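Internal tracking record. Fields below are filled automatically when a chain is submitted to the structure queue. Please do not edit lines marked as system-generated. If the sequence contains nonstandard residues, flag them in the REMARKS field before resubmitting.
Queue: standard
Priority: normal
Entity type: single polypeptide chain
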Amino acid sequence: MNLPIVPPYEPMEMTQVERIPDGEQWEYEPKWDGFRALAFRDGHEIEIQSKSGQPLARYFPEVVERLRALRAQKFVLDGELMVQLGDELSFDALLQRIHPAETRIARLAKETPARLIVFDLLVDDRGNDLTGQTLDVRREALEAFAKKYFTGNDPVLSPATYDRAVVDKWFAHVGNALDGVIAKRRDLPYASGTRGAAVKIKNLRTADCVVGGYRLNKDKSGVGSLLLGLYDKQGKLNHVGFTSGFKTRERSPLLKQLRELEKPPGFTGASPGGPSRWRQSEEPWFPLDPKLVVEVQYDHVTGNRFRHGTRLLRFRPDKAPRQCTMDQLRLDEAASPLQFLR
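SYSTEM-GENERATED OUTPUT FOLLOWS
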């Protein structure tokens, strides 16, 4: 490629903070729950790069073709790869797209096509490097680029606002429809590989969960993680995630306590998975009589499961297990994240 920026190129990073910053120097955007991706085009040559610098184009041939269909012959775009199922975005379906088999890639490209949501322009259609320009300049150039070249729903321009009231509406959907909110300094250039120009904010929530099982730590001397469950309307206990992060001195005493509660089946609905393409073997888990309740902190839910590991806050002996239900994971104002792209 003869572009001024070529892969591998480090995208701008974000620092996580607790509160949305205020001030005229900030621009706000939704934080999407997908794969961060840089898209490079120089004539017929197109590359897609992950956040870590790995090539992604072979896994998303449909995105490559849509980028090639754009009339612009040169560009570098910063954005997020997403997979839409119905009116929702599915991170699980996105994960399935990273597969070594060409036949599977081709099939999934048709069954679960990805789309690229774009939020920054690093090289414009004339081959000019914009990374030294402020965000205000880059955003204006991106909006002009999108108006000129984006004709369908892929790629699509990610919204941005300076209005705090709009940001607060977005933030109400964090944890379900969105992964968070991003605030970027309008007066700073693109900070490749650094965190100085942008922050991310997640709306952390808590849930009371039943401990339906556990896994051992690496040396088998103590507890590695607690497997969390919630009851559905049919009264079945469904596995929804895990929590770990115990102190070393806590692992062995906790293991002794849990062994006294071992009793199958542990989960009566959805259970912890077995081997996957990510891990050749899954550590075995041990079912428990559903008597223990813990309160955990989480940031995102997808497919009725915690998207990431949760933070253990405390044990809840005062809470009845049957009170730990799935409706804790549903927001009062649950909405499709796609509405933010209209």
